[in-house]
Amino acid sequence: MYITCLDLEGVLVPEIWIAFAKASGIPELTRTTRDEPDYEKLMNWRLGILAEHHLGLKEIQETIATIDPLPGAKEFLDELRSFSQVIIISDTFTQFASPLMKKLGWPTIFCNSLEAAEDGRITGFKMRIENSKLTTVKALQSIGYETIASGDSYNDLSMIKASKAGFLFRTTEQIKKDHPELPAYESFDELMAAIKAAMGLEHC
């Protein structure tokens, strides 16, 4: 039995922090896990910038309300879910993800949570589990599932490499250069074909 594990941002929806960087006029916030492999370090840096500019959860959620899934993402996800169990494993936060899950048809997502004060200031964050993507994939494998994984960033590499089949999707040239052994795709049609082939469903 297979479970397909997908990253969220950059794969199914635009990068939330890049959208917020544009909306807030703070270019430093365009830095993502494509640039910084250490997610906790990246988040602590982001929280420092938010505090400096007196921005909080409300402002970010207002930006998220304007974000739509990437073109073709919902259709891709709908087709994928017709023949495979699918879990989105993301380092984003419940408070960010919920509006986007509604637009994607409420797929299953495993993610983290933010800690916020009553006035909306983000005071911290709680990671669901250490190395959540790799840990989740290994846990699924331990209960009898074969995993197929795809993502675009440094923090996706562990789950991609640990899976029976793993693919980079719309990643950076640097990540492709660093990991030439991993197939890299740019379109949902290509990714769908690769997933089906990995499952032995090429003719479906």
Helix-strand blueprint:
Elements: E1 2-6, H1 16-24, H2 39-52, H3 57-64, H4 73-81, E2 85-93, H5 94-103, E3 108-116, E4 122-126, H6 132-142, E5 146-151, H7 157-162, E6 165-169, H8 173-178, E7 184-185, H9 188-198
Parallel strand pairs: 1-2, 1-5, 2-3, 5-6, 6-7
Antiparallel strand pairs: 3-4
Give the H and E element order.
EHHHHEHEEHEHEHEH
List the uncertain runs. Answer: none
Mean pLDDT: 93
User: What is the CATH-assigned architecture of one domain?
Assistant: 3-Layer(aba) Sandwich
- The beta-strand count equals 7
Distance between the termini: 17 Å
Round the Cα radius of gyration to an integer and report it: 17 Å
Q: What is the name of the CATH class of one domain?
A: Alpha Beta
Going by helix content, strand content and strand pairing, the class is: alpha/beta
Biggest sheet: strands side by side, in what order?
4-3-2-1-5-6-7
Q: Tell me the number of helical segments per DSSP (H or I, 4 or more residues long).
A: 9
Indicate the CATH topology of one domain.
Answer: Rossmann fold
Fraction in beta strands = 15-25%
CATH superfamily (homologous) name of one domain: HAD superfamily/HAD-like
What percentage of residues falls in helices of 4 or more residues? 40-55%
Largest sheet: 7 strands, mixed
Task: Name the shape in a single word.
Answer: globular
